[in-house]
Design brief:
228 residues; 46% helix; 13% strand
């Protein structure tokens, strides 16, 4: 490491980034849409329309915000169908090697996801990659919101990780597949790199004003060039 430079910490998103689950997400979304008689979306349509908070995404298609009852019903259906399809999803191409190489290089990394914490931790463990992360945090509280406040809490927790020093937003790069990942990174003062293999179209990601890449390998290579 060059004198005066701080090691870069990576904060990985899970769904659509490390986990290649976009087709499971589309299937579950269309099942939820059927509940309110919305036509199913193609992958391309989903990527053009998707946004958070999720009720705003539904508003784009319904022409109005869903009622509280509709939202609860659609959210429940989405998670039920997603859970069924998720088990067949694999890690994104190259992810396992990238995680191992980052660890071997002496760098730190963590996961922050909007997938429910109680589900995320055993799922990550099940893919055999948990040991690469100093912390794995999923969403606590209601679903459908933004990642920004969760990112705040993630870095507060990282500051207290035993044996790890120097992790701060200033020397961290968030790698995710959604504009909300860039928003959350900016909220705490971290950098972001967005990956096109998940929930957004390239044009949607470019609007976030941060680097956009087509592979996780490119994302990590770019992160290596950043320093505090």
């Amino acid at each position: 490491m060059t004198p005066g430079k701080t090691r870069t910490h990576l904060v990985w998103d899970w769904n659509g980034t490390l986990l290649d689950d976009i087709h499971a997400v589309i299937h579950a979304t269309n099942a939820a849409f059927a509940e309110v008689e919305l036509a199913p979306l193609t992958l391309e349509q989903y990527r053009e329309m998707y946004c958070v908070p999720i009720p705003r995404f539904y508003e784009r298609l319904l022409g109005r915000l869903p009622t509280e009852a509709e939202w609860e019903r659609m959210d429940d259906i989405f998670h039920r169908y997603y859970a069924e399809r998720r088990v067949a999803c694999g890690l994104t191409a190259g992810a396992e090697d990238l995680l191992a190489q980052w660890t071997l290089a002496g760098h730190s990394q963590s996961i922050l996801s909007m997938y429910g914490h109680e589900h995320l931790v055993p799922v990550v463990r099940g893919y055999g990659i948990e040991s690469h992360f100093v912390r794995v945090d999923g969403r606590t509280g209601p679903s459908g919101g933004s990642k920004a406040l969760h990112m705040e809490r993630h870095f507060e927790a990282l500051a207290g990780v035993g044996g790890i020093s120097g992790i701060s937003p200033a020397n961290s790069v968030v790698i995710g597949d959604a504009v909300d990942d860039a928003v959350a990174a900016a909220h705490v003062g971290a950098r972001a790199v967005l990956y096109t293999g998940g929930s957004h179209s390239r044009s949607s990601l470019l609007a976030a004003g941060v680097p956009v890449v087509d592979s996780l390998g490119e994302a990590v290579a770019l992160a290596e060039t950043f320093s505090a």
